[in-house]
Amino acid sequence: NASISQEQLKKGKNVLLSVEVKHDKSGEIVRAKGGLVKQMKMPEVREKFSLLNGSSCPEPEEPVFGKRNFIGRGIPQMQVRLVYDTTLYPKRFMGGPWLPKIFVDEFWLTNDQLVKLNTTGGNSFESQVHLGLMSSARWRFQMHMEASLEAQAKVWGEDSEEMLQMRDLFANTNPYLLIVTMVVSVLHMVFEFLAFKNDVQFWQGCDPATLNKYLSVQS
After folding, report:
1. Quick check: pTM over 0.85?
2. Per-residue confidence in pLDDT tens, the chain, 219 aa
3. What are the residue boundaries of the structural domains of the chain, listed by start?
4. Separation CA 81–CA 74 (nearest Å)
5. Is 101 exposed, middle or buried (0-12, 13-18, 19+ CB in 10 A)?
6. Which of 29, 151, 6, 154 shows the shortest CA–CA distance to 82?
7. End-to-end Cα, the chain, rounded Å
8. In angstroms, what CA-CA distances link 148 with 74, 105, 154, 158, 186?
């Protein structure tokens, strides 16, 4: 049961939770940190007005994410993953015993799973920690996707709210539908490239008389 004070929320800082796993024989400890409370942009409601009569429009108001207003959101369930690797490596590449990777899995965290917190009263919510295993292949895939999303956020200027909406798309959409959509998009790009290539080859193979005739028709 986690209790968050008002001062922590008013400061606008994230609250982290540290997880440790200790080996019984060697005494080695691996650690991981994850966000228990995250500060995210709070949507601002902007009302629309009609330029003709100056009254409010009947259309629904669109929430716009502000730049200064933030709201704390608690994570009710934290997924702690211990990465295991069953790959057989050559003996000459083995440098000795190594510690497994442990991390807090927030890749599939969706917007509807977060608990909104306020700065006016006491906030108390239960945060459950689940410890599980994850294969090294899946871990590498998630790290690659996470790096891709972060790179897109830096290029396009997306904030944490838009990133959550993107993750909602991946988490709540049927994976087969996503695969079909990606395949159709790739095929569409291939066909467009082939059509452009055929146009270029056609005009490169035309004689000057045909080109002059086409230009005269266009003019």
Report:
1. no
2. 455 666 666 666 667 777 777 877 777 888 887 777 776 666 555 566 666 666 655 554 444 444 455 667 778 788 888 888 887 777 777 777 777 888 888 887 777 777 777 655 556 667 778 888 888 888 888 888 888 877 777 776 655 556 667 777 777 777 788 788 889 999 999 999 999 988 888 777 777 777 777 665 454
3. 2-46+60-172, 175-218
4. 19
5. middle
6. 29
7. 77
8. 25, 16, 10, 13, 18
